[in-house]
Each structure stands twice: as C-alpha cells, then as structure tokens.
Amino acid sequence: MFSRIVQTSSRQGEIVEVVFRNGWDYMRRLLTGGRVDEPKLPPPAVLRNILVDLGPVYVKLGQLLSTRPDLLPAEYIEALSTLQAEVPPVDWAEIEVVLRKQLREPLEDVFESINYQPVAAGSIAQTHRATLSDGREVALKIQRPGLETVVEQDISLIRLMARLVAQTEFGQYYDIVSIAEEFAQALRTELDFTQEAHYTDQLRDNLMNTRWFDASKLVLPEIYWDYTTSHVMVMEWLDGVPLLSAFPPVTADGTIDLTERDDISTMLLRAFFQQICLDGFFHADPHPGNLFYLKDGRVALFDCGMVGRLDPRTQQVLLELILAIVNLDAQRCTQLVLELSPSAQPVNRMKLESEFDRLLRRYYSLSISQVNFSKLVYEVLQIVRNNKIRVPGNLGLCAKAIANLEGIARALDPNFNIPNKIRPMMTEVFQRQIVGEEPLVALLRTVLDLKNLSLQSPRQVELLLDRVTSETLQWNISVREGEPLRRTIDASANRLSFSIVVGSLIMGAALISSNTQSSQVYWVSDVLFATASFLGLWLIISILRSGFLK
Q1: Which has the closest alpha carbon to 280: 221, 385, 216, 203?
Q2: Phi first, then psi: what are they for 511, rounded to 5°?
Q3: Which of 354, 328, 349 is nearest to 337 (CA)?
Q4: Whose CA, among 160, 292, 486, 509, lies 20 to 30 Å from 92?
C-alpha cells in the first residue's frame, strides 16, 4: 500500500515523507496499511512542525484545530495557535497574474499604486497596501496562485485518513469523517473571499446596533465590492499596530494609566458577548493578531473569514451552562452538557457528574474575580472529551473566542474583572431568553398554545379512555441500545439451554450405566458421557473467552 500511495501522487509521497521524517509512528502505520489502534497524537511541537512542513493547506488545518478546544487538549491548542501568519510570501510576479485575471478592468486603471512587498502573508492569501485611482488607501488581499488544486488534493487525502481512523472506536465515537467534512467545507468557504466580505458586513451591521458600548470605537474595514471577487478582496486600509504592541506591559509600580486599557477590554468583551449571546453570529478567531489599535484611538477587527453561529436553543443552553459553572452546580452542568450533546453511545452519568463535582470543588473558595474562565472552560471540555462526548463544533469556536478575549484583557490589565464588565448585559440576555425580542408576539404565541392545549386535551383524554375500555390501547416502547441487550439475553438463554442439554446427557448416561447389565448397551453410555464432556468443555471455554466469569 505504501508504494501505491507514493506512485499515485507526488503529493501523497510528500506527506508520507514528512510524517516519516518527524517520526509520527501512528500515522506511519496508518499510511503503510498497518493495524490501526486508537489514535496517538504526536507531541504538540511535533504536530506543529508536521503541519508547517506539509504546506499552506495543513497550516490552515492547524489554525482551524487551534479554535477547537472541544477536540484537543489545551497544550495542543496553544502550540497550534502559533501557526498564525507564519507562511512565506509568494513573489509579486505570480500574485499579479491572479490579480489581473480577477479584475474586470485593467490593473493600471483600478490602482494608482501598489506596494509589491506584502504587509501580511497567510496560508490562504497575502495582503498588500495599495492606492485606488481615486486616491483611497486600501488593503489588497489576494489568494495564493494554484491553491485550489492543492486544496482539493489535500482534502481528498484528509478524507482518506479520516476513513481509516473511522475504523477505530475513537473515530466512530467522535465521527471523524464528519469532522473532516466540516474542515473541507470551512476551507472551501475561506477560498471564496466574497463569503468573508459578506461576514465582515454582517458583523459590522450587528455591532453598530448596540447600546452596550461606543460603536464608533470598534471598527471593521469597509469592503469595496466593485473590486472584490472570489480570489481578491479590496477593503479599507486602517492604519494601526497590533493591539498588544500598542500598550506596554503593566509595571510593578503601577505607574501606567489603566483607564484606556480598561475601556478597550470592556468594549471588546461586551462586543463579543453581544455576538455570542444576542446576535448568534460571532467572529470565531479574535486572536491578538486580528485586533489592531489605530492611530485615532479606535480598535479594528480584521480577518472575518472564520465565524460561528448559534441557534436560539443553543444560546439558551449555553447561557445556562455558564451560570451552572459560575454557581459550581455539577449536577446541572451534567444535565446541560448531555442536552447539548446527545450521544449515540450510553454515557456514565454518575461518573460525568462526579468529575464535574471534583473540578468545581477547586473553585469553591475563590471569588468570581479570581476565576480564570478560559482555563475553567478548557477543563470542562477536557472532562467532556474524556467521557467521549462530542459537543457541537460551534461551541468549541465559542470557547476559544472567550479564551482569546480573556487573554487579551488580562494582558492589558492583570486585575481586569470580567464578570463585573458583562453583568449589566445579563438582564437583557435573560429578558430575551424569557420573552424574546418581541414580548407582545411571544405573549400572543403563548396564549394561542394554551388555547390549542385546552381544545386538544379533552379530546385526547376521551380517545385514551375509549381505547382503554375497548382494549385497543397499544404502547410503543423504544429501548435505547436494545439490540445489544437482545443479543446478550439471547446468548444467556442459549448457554442456559446448552447447559441443560449437557446435564441431560450426563444424567441419561448415568441411568443407562446403572440400570443395564448388558455390555452391548454400555457403548451408548460411553458415547453420551463423551459427548457431554466435549460439549461441557466447549461451554466452559466459551464462557472463559467472553470474560463474563468474573
């Protein structure tokens, strides 16, 4: 199989060579057709090096995985987060070919000038500073040439490896094939820059409609749709520096004025709290490299290609889960996690609740301001992973976004009190959860439901009584995991029947042997004894092999 993979595609051969060079033994056995046991990830640094060596697509895979603490432990999330913006740029001559193909007008008519040195280079695209013919300063984001072909090749290989891993219990429990499909869909979406442009406009519109912070202080770049295509995005140039670079570390003597830092942290937290809990549409990757401090004192949010969505029900359950964690309620945490993530396999509820209880007990003596929420969320997700419960992917994105924001806030001010900053918004969130955005409509809907219930209930009771009295009432009972239970009962019944047969043979042989004087009949007794001994030995071996003699 190894030789066939190498011969089929040079890309496959390159992947095999990279894996071998970095010594990932599990993937080596997987690619060479060896026996696949439970997946064993390489150390975080090794995994990062493998993804870097494999190229832009796998760097993007690492970036996506860094936003999924529901799938990977915290040390892997930290290592993969460093993959951001570490790809060497493409020469301008190659980029220019893509740009000219995408523009509807000649390049010279659209741009007055272009800086050929990129200001940023990523796994999907690189960004140049340019000036439009009308004098507007813009950021020119151009997709890497030939990327689509490489992406489709790598997606096919990722699907192949997912199908191989799916043969294991791990792969079946976490539905690795579906996760691979999620990645493929997310990657294809990022290849279409019109999607990112639409996301940017939607986030900007949502954040402008707020009363919890000064919307003029948080800006997203304007998209110039006349020049934006699937491979090129032209947007407003916002001049600034990375947010954390604009503010020096807090000194021990406390001489730094923390007022502006506090205002910025509060604004960012409330903006993302609104996105997650009110809008249900949020920027999924607010790492420090995507937040810039502008020269005019505003904060800019960039790179909206990765977003998360939460439906109203998930929003409600997530909010209740956060409250349960804050209240250190292990039982409620268990209930809500299982509600969010119904598993196809049975879950040991008592074990899960016990692990939540042990975790939350460590925070009993701490005040809310002392709690590191991102660490706590990661520990909750670790318990969920250990119990083989797969939470929806958007919740992983949400957890990583919260962790990034808390890290930024505490970097600006180590004493920043997160709960106090978002507490004023909680009233509105709860109000929406209870009565919705339009209370009158919600009230009328409730009245209508009560009316329908009052009309239907007497009829349903009458029908129930009629079926009871006529002996036509039937119950449809569905037993979860009924097939394994049926097989277990069948096996037990078969063994019992087998034991009865063996015992009957022995008793028959004994009766023949004791009541017969003729030597001609003794052979019947011997045959019965031999048959019973053979069948009995077979039964004992079967029981021992099943492991149920303990």
Answers
A1: 203
A2: -65, -45
A3: 349
A4: 292
- Strand (E) positions, 174-275? 218-219, 232-236, 240-242
Strands 299-301 and 291-294: antiparallel
Beta bridge partners of 294: 240
CA distance 459 to 320: 36
The structural domains of the chain, with segments of one domain joined by +, span 2-87+149-188, 251-436, 494-546
255 with 244: CB under 8 angstroms? Answer: no
Kind and range of the H or E run holding 293: strand 291-294
* Nearest Cα to Cα of residue 228 among 104, 42, 379: 104
Rounded to whole angstroms, what are the CA distances from 264 to 243, 244, 247, 270?
10, 11, 11, 10
3-state SS, 394-426, equals HHHHHHHHHHHHHHHHHHHCCCCCHHHHHHHHH
Least Cα distance to 130 among 237, 290, 241 occurs for: 237
The answer to whether 219 touches 301, Cβ cutoff 8 Å, is yes
* 300 φ/ψ angles, rounded to the nearest 5 degrees: -105, 140
Amino acid letter at 149?
Answer: T
According to the model, what pLDDT value does residue 8 have? 42
For residue 42, give every residue at least 6 positions away whose Cβ sits within 8 Å of its Cβ, in sequence order, or none. 22, 23, 24, 26, 50
Question: What whole-number distance in Å separates Cα of residue 435 and Cα of residue 446?
Answer: 10
Q: Which two tokens stand for residue 430?
A: 């709860």
- Helices 259-274 + 193-208 axis angle, to 10: 110
Helix (H, G, I), strand (E, B) or coil at 125: strand
**Average pLDDT of every residue of the chain:** 78
Element (H, E) at 182: helix 176-191
For residues 521-526, average pLDDT = 64
Query: Average pLDDT in the 135-148 region?
Result: 91
Q: What pLDDT is recorded for position 475?
A: 63
The answer to whether residues 218 and 301 touch, using CB atoms and an 8 Å cutoff, is yes
Residues contacting 131, CB < 8 A, separation 6+: 111, 112, 113, 114, 137, 138
Closest by CA to 428, choosing from 248, 279, 303, 325, is 279
- Rounded distance between C-alpha atoms, residue 281 and residue 43, angstroms: 34
Distances in whole angstroms, Cα of residue 481 to Cα of each of 343, 350, 412, 529: 12, 19, 52, 41
pTM: 0.72
d(CA 481, CA 489): 13
Confidence band, pLDDT 50/70/90 cuts, at residue 418 = confident
For residue 250, the model assigns a pLDDT of: 72
Phi, psi of 413 (to 5 degrees): -150, 105
According to DSSP, the residues that pair with 301 across neighbouring strands are 291
Residue 453 — very low, low, confident or very high, per pLDDT cuts 50/70/90?
low
